[in-house]
UniProtKB/TrEMBL annotation, chain A:
It comes from the Bacteria. The keyword Cell membrane does not apply. The chain crosses the membrane at residues 34-54, 66-85, 110-132, 138-156. Keywords: Membrane, Transmembrane, Transmembrane helix. It comes from Rhodonellum ikkaensis. This is Sulphur transport domain-containing protein. InterPro entries: DUF6691.
TrEMBL record, chain B:
It is a multi-pass membrane protein. It is found in: Cell inner membrane. The keyword Transport applies. Belongs to the TsuA/YedE (TC 9.B.102) family. It holds the Pfam family Sulf_transp. This is Sulphur transport domain-containing protein.
Length: 164, 193
């Protein structure tokens, strides 16, 4: 029994904010659709200038409604879509029932959230825009990305010693 | 065609961009039962390249390849937007923000990121250390500790009515306010702005 539990834990990352609840595993060309959605997403990020350090400054200085409008309307559309998916029991393309992982409350959401906020105001980017900034030609952001990966690694290394 | 390019090259308003970003949530759920989230790609990068036997990075990251492919797509999307549909004008920023930033030594609005900070020339300076190394580290460490970023918590989490994500989002904003209003000025003075 213990081995089975261990195997399950090893297969899907615990406390992951993007739990992959698809049963079938996808490889190779099946992943192209995510590349296309990502491209669409990166294009919007840059065209709406949400990847701009200036937009993030406007937001945190409460001097523009723009970012609040973007995030607020994105949440609204997400909320309505999820309600519709649930109400009509819409299935995923491969026929699986759509599952959304439950997020458990932990102290990390407070402490880690605050730490991320500090970094967000400095870099002017959350992880998504970091990739879009690099694509937009700000190649020095590669250094920020490597540092963000290092930060993730350090968290992983000490995660069991941090309050959670 | 020219008119189309001219039209699409204008900066998009929030009420177009926001709903399109929100649509990513049902699209990912429908095409592959995937919950929207971006910072987890950093974790998968660690798991794939430098797991070092740490339990947090020991899982089947191959199953999560979609997330890595997704962020590569974001990078390519950024490239396409800038190469083919770039806005030729300077970025329009609120006058009050411009006044605040001028006091910090930021006055260049020719591109999306201020040229005073985000250049390779600054890499091995105190400015680079603060904005690239420290900033990036805080983003990576903080998002993982929080279990998500703006996409995973603020958009996906709140959309699916999960209160822990609302808590996380409140603290993202709080951290940003504290950095912007209390720490950014002194820190920038310290690194030579």
């Amino acid at each position: 029994m213990k081995t089975i539990e261990k195997n399950i834990a090893a297969q899907s990352p615990i406390e992951c904010e993007a739990p992959n609840l698809q049963v079938q595993e996808e490889k190779g060309l099946k992943l192209v659709k995510y590349l296309i959605v990502g491209m669409f997403f990166g294009l919007i990020f840059v065209k709406a200038e949400v990847v701009s350090w200036f937009r993030i400054q406007e937001m945190f200085r409460l001097q523009s409604f723009f970012m609040y409008g973007v995030i607020g309307s994105a949440i609204l559309v997400g909320l309505i879509s999820i309600q519709l998916i649930k109400k009509f029991n819409v299935k995923a393309m491969n026929g699986e029932t759509i599952k959304i992982g439950k997020k458990e409350f932990r102290k990390g959401q407070i402490i880690g959230g605050f730490i991320f906020g500090l970094g967000w105001a400095l870099t002017g980017a959350c992880p998504g825009p970091l990739f879009a900034q690099i694509g937009s030609g700000f190649t020095v952001i590669l250094v920020t990305l490597v540092s963000a990966i290092a930060g993730t690694w350090v968290y992983g290394k000490f995660s069991d010693k941090l309050p959670n | 065609m020219e008119q189309f390019i001219e039209w699409i090259s204008q900066p998009w308003p929030w009420y177009i961009a926001g709903p399109l970003i929100g649509l990513t949530v049902p699209i990912l759920l429908l095409i592959g039962n995937k919950s929207f989230g971006i910072s987890s790609s950093l974790r998968h990068a660690c798991a794939a390249c430098i797991p070092a036997g740490i339990p947090f990075f020991t899982y089947n990251w191959r199953k999560e390849m979609w997330n890595i492919v997704f962020v590569i797509g974001i990078l390519i999307g950024g490239f396409i937007a800038t190469t083919f549909f770039a806005n030729p004008d300077v970025i329009v920023v609120a006058a009050s923000t411009q006044a605040d930033l001028a006091a910090l030594g930021i006055t260049d609005y020719s591109s999306l990121l201020p040229a005073e900070i985000f250049t390779w020339d600054n890499l091995f300076t105190a400015k680079g250390l603060l904005f690239f190394v420290v900033g990036g580290f805080l983003v990576g460490f903080g998002t993982r500790y929080a279990g998500g970023c703006t996409s995973g918590h603020a958009i996906m989490g709140i959309s699916s009515l999960q209160w822990p994500s609302l808590v996380a989002t409140i603290f993202f904003m709080l951290g940003g306010f504290v950095m912007t209003h209390f720490l950014l000025g002194p820190l920038m003075a310290l690194v030579g702005f």
